Each structure stands twice: as C-alpha cells, then as structure tokens.
Here is the input.
Amino acid sequence: MIVTENSLQAQRKAAMAVLAHSEAAEISDRLEAIDLPDHENLREPENGLVMVRGRIGGDGSPFNLGEATVSRAAVRLSTGEIGFGYTLGRDGAKARMIALCDALVQSDQFAEIVESKVIAPLRAAISAKRNRKSAEAAATRVDFYTLVRGEG
Here is the structure.
C-alpha cells in the first residue's frame, strides 16, 4: 500500500480529533492492550494558555474571545517517530498519551495496531455517545403547528 504524505497527515488529524474528544481514562485503558515500544519524553507535559478567536455570525470580523488552558507534550519512539499531543485543560497525562499515540500512528510497525485497538474503539464510543444524546434530544422534540382560519 502506498502511503502519501497527505494521507498520513489526514490519518494523524483524524486520530488526534478522536483522542482530543476522548477521556484520559479511556485512552489509558486502550493503550494497556498494546505492547508499547520504548519511548522518551521530548517535552514533559506542561500547561499554558492559548487565545481563542471568534466571529459574530460566522462571517464577521474575528475578535479575541478569551484564553483557554491547554496541556501539551512531545514523545519520541525508539524508532525515531516523534508525536505531539495537545488537549484543552490541565491534563498533562492525557497530552502525553495523545503524543504517544501520534508517534505510534506514524510508525509502520504500530499504525494498524493503534488504529484497531485504540482509535477505532474510541471513535465508536464517541459516535455512540453522540447518537445517544441526539436520541435523548429528539425524544423531547415538540412539533408546533398553527391553524389558519378560513376567513379572509
């Protein structure tokens, strides 16, 4: 299978989206099912702030909405792949696990294992949770209609 740079970027982006929306405990549980390679922290997990920008109505001028706390980390596998992890909030352990998964996704040896044992189950859990919330909201839906008088 030929892997292009764009498909690898798309795969990493999709994996990071799933990991960022998952709970740290869920990621940890899934990673325990994998025999992880040797790795080192390039950047210890640390917390910081990022500026959040917004737009009025989606098409107005951008403005600084406020700041959000983020955690970041970087990990290097013994085979040389480097992964970066970012997450909202002050959860350094989650940022480190995301960085580890990012590095594993780039590895020829571990990419399929991480996809099947970590990313795919987390994606399914997120989808099930969204579907459940959607069904709960749909159950409270009320349809309104008006009667128009025939006069006039």
Remarks:
- The two ends are 71 Å apart (CA to CA).
